[in-house]
Each structure stands twice: as C-alpha cells, then as structure tokens.
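Section 4.2 – Deliverable D4.2 (structural model, holo form)

The reporting period included a commitment to supply a predicted holo structure for the target in complex with 3-methyl-2-oxobutanoic acid. Inputs used:
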Amino acid sequence: MNTPAQSDRVLIFDTTLRDGEQSPGATLNVDEKLAIARQLARLGVDVIEAGFPFASPGDFEAVQKIADQVGTPDGPTICGLARATKHDIEAAGKAIQPAAKGRIHTFIATSDIHLEYKLRKTRQEVLEIAPEMVAYAKTFTNDVEFSPEDAGRSDPEFLYEMLERAIAAGATTVNIPDTVGYLTPSEFGTLIKGIKDNVPNINQAIISVHGHNDLGLAVANFLEAVKNGARQLECTINGIGERAGNAALEELVMAMHVRRSFYNPYLGRPVESEEPLTNIDTRQLYKTSRLVSNLTGMLVQPNKAIVGANAFAHESGIHQDGVLKHKLTYEIMDAQSIGLTDNQIVLGKHSGRNAFRTRLKELGHEMADQELNRAFLRFKDLADKKKDVTDWDLEAIVNDEAQQVPDLFRLEHLQVSCGDHARPTATVTLRTPDGEELTDAAIGTGPVDAVYKAINRVVDIPNQLIEFSVQSVTVGIDAIGEVTIRLKHEDLLFAGHGANTDIIVASAQAYMNALNRLYASLQNGRSLHPQHDEVASAVK
Ligand code: KIV
Ligand code: ZN
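Output (structure tokens):
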C-alpha cells in the first residue's frame, strides 16, 4: 500500500471560503458560503477549508452548516482553520463536528521575522506550542493539518525539526506556506525536496503546499512542488485571496490535466497514462468560477487563463483561419473541457416548471421548492422579454438567487427618465428593515448616478462607489446584463451584484445588494483576521 506521501493522486484543498474570503471586499454570508461549498463538492475538491470558526459567530455557523450539509460521507472533507491556541482549536473542532470527514488546520509562524515582530516568541517556544496544539486538535478529529506559517522564509533546519515534531504529535498533513509569495519555482521545489529528504517521519504525512501570488509565481511554484513530492495543493477559485491572491485552482488542475504526460512520471505513473491526476470534474470549472465571481464581486480579468472571457476566443484573423482548419493549431484544450457549452438555446416562453426544473437539474442545480418557485418566476419574466433563454441565462438567474443577502432594505419600485436633452432623474421606493415604505427622487449626471443618489437619500449610510462594471451574460441585444460594484465604507469594501435585462435595474439591484451587506456587517460587527489579529494584539 502507498504511504500518504507516495500517493499517485494530487489532492485539491480549496480555500476559497477561507483565504479567498480574506480578499478585501469578498465577504460572503452563510448562505452564499453554502452555495459555493455545494458547487465545490460538485467540482470534486477533496477538502473544503470552510472558514475560521473562532473569527466570529457567523464564521462558526458557516463552517458548521457546511460540515452538516456538504460534509456527507461521499462528499469532501470539511476543514476549519485555527491558530495554535486552545480556544481556536476548540471552536474549529466543534464547527467541523457534523461532517462525516472533518479536519482541523492549525498553524503557527516559523520565520524569524514573524517570530520576532508578530508572535514575540522564541524558536524554542513555538517548537513546544506546535506539537502540543496538534495533539490537542487530535482530541477532536484524527485528521489534523499543521502549517508553519511563512515557511518560505523560515530557516530550513528549524522547519525540518518543527515538521518532525508536528508529525510525531499526530499531524496527518503538513502544509508548507509561501505566505508572502516570495519564492521562485526552483526554490520552492528545493524546499519540498529538502523536507522529503530531511524530515525522518515525513512518510507518515501528506505534504501540502499553500502560496500567494505576489510575484505571479504561485501556480508555477506549486507545479514544481508536485514534481518534488507535494500531494496536496491549497488553492482558490479564480485565484482570489489575501493581497495578490492564492494559486488558482483552475490553472493548476488544467495544467496537470492538459500536460498529464509530463507530470505522470513524477507521480510514479507511465507517461501515457490517461488517469486523471486530480479528482476534479473539469467541466464544472467555468460554472464555479462564475458563481464565485458573482457572489464575491471579484471580477475575472478577460485574459485570465482558463476562465477569462478571452481564454477561448480567437480574435485575430490568422488564428481563426488556423483554428477553422484544425483546432490544434492554436488550441491546447477544448472549451467544453471546462464546461463552456455552445450556449444552446434551451427554453422559451412556453416552457413549463417541469422543463425548467429538469434543465436546472441537468446543470447541477437542485433547488428547494421555494427557491425553485422564485427562480421560475424570474425565468418567466425573462422569457417574456427575451425570446430564447440559454443555459447561461439560467445560470445567471440561479447565481443571482444564490445571493442570500437578506433584503434588509428592499427595492420596491424604480423609475428613471433620461435622454440627451433631459436631466437624468430617478424615483425609488424602498422598504426599510422596519417595513416602512419610503419614496425619494434625485437628479444625477446619468441614470445610474440618479438612481444611486435617490437610494442614498433613503439609506443614509455614507459610502463611496469605487468600482462599477457591466457585463452581458450572452450575446445579443436582449442579453441579461450583470452589474458588479464595490463600495467603500470607512476602510471596508463591500461587493454587490445584480442581473437583469435592464441594466439600470441591475445597477440598482447591485447597489442594494452591496448596501445590505454593509448594513448587515454594521449590525454583526467585524470578524477576526486569522493572520493579522495576532499583530494587532502584539502591538497593543
Ligand atoms: O498564507 C498563509 O500562510 C496562510 C496560513 C494560515 C496557511 O494562509
Ligand atoms: Zn494564505
């Protein structure tokens, strides 16, 4: 039997809901996290890091609900992050408890710079804390992952000793983070090789890697780590995450899929083996990317590898000519392999609830009756305006429904007048959290400005609009427009998203969505940051 370290599969550990959610403005509520977790399970990730349970009651609830509803026996392992302290570990242990397979991921920094300025601890002190906390985590679950934070800038000899102790205390996965995205691919590969060669009990644990993209090297670093023995990759959808983000899941998976003959020998397989290197269903990648982008408000750049709008578009004449003669001239992978279908027309005005439900099911969306009813009404409304409804339109409706920001303030009516000789004027009627209906109007520089000003007259929370983008879901003049915005309140960012065939309505919905997130956060208070709050308390 293979030891964990010799496994011939690469495990995918998704941290979109933890490290990804640490991106400024990407805050998700519990139901949105659940919607993403369900999609990650369909995608086939091995582990979902669902959050940092000690951070706030909301984070705890999210991890617990995901553990309960997504952590089924044939589903992914559900993981909770914990600093190497008893209260963090206890919170993580309780939150993952409903999962059939639950993991605690505990970490402590090991680089001298973090020890001196952040933790204010000696090497000896953390050498003692780590195994003690791993052993404590083992009292909640057998599956314990340990990370020496900032491993990339830690003294390798000290790191080996730390890992040996963590494994001896029961860590089943040791994760090597390049916390600040500093290493180059060959350095990262050498670090992993050094760990394999110098940690005596390394065969009792899986080697995992975690890395940030500050120099744009995270994916390259991980692929080098795989060549040197890493068998778990910690990554996020669309590469979102702290600062420049994490390694992008879709890029890693497709690199190992398209170039499997290159990677096969490193995993002890014959070069020509067609066995997938990961458990990921690549046809779910595009859909997952869109869901995460819509719910977090983090747009995907058009030239982003794999999931960007241009990734499979052949604009230049010479390329089009080549592709028409033979696809392989300019395409190394098929758009369908990531789930980009031919945008088929699937439903129309006369399609009934059953056809709607069936198509959604085929697309992988099982909805409760109430949710389905709401989505069906939106579909009918759309089919009245737009003759042919495609899969992408359906996805846009479902994604929009997945946004579970409570309608604290609710848009009841919107009326706009504008034109080249008119002063853009908007009248809005909103329902407040107390159930009161309020109407107000404003003049703006354009229709969206007028709408936002009118809304601001009712919802009096100071904020600054810092990002506004409109994208069409499909081609054609009657396409659904998706509006994504971000607004700033003090030093916090909030995203909002809306989808409608009328982009002024979509803009209003996106603004209400962001305002509701902002309002909810003012009510709930702020979450702890797992990596920065130690700094704050150390500095105090
Ligand atoms: O970047 C990092 O070091 C982390 C750890 C908590 C694993 O996110
Ligand atoms: Zn990280």
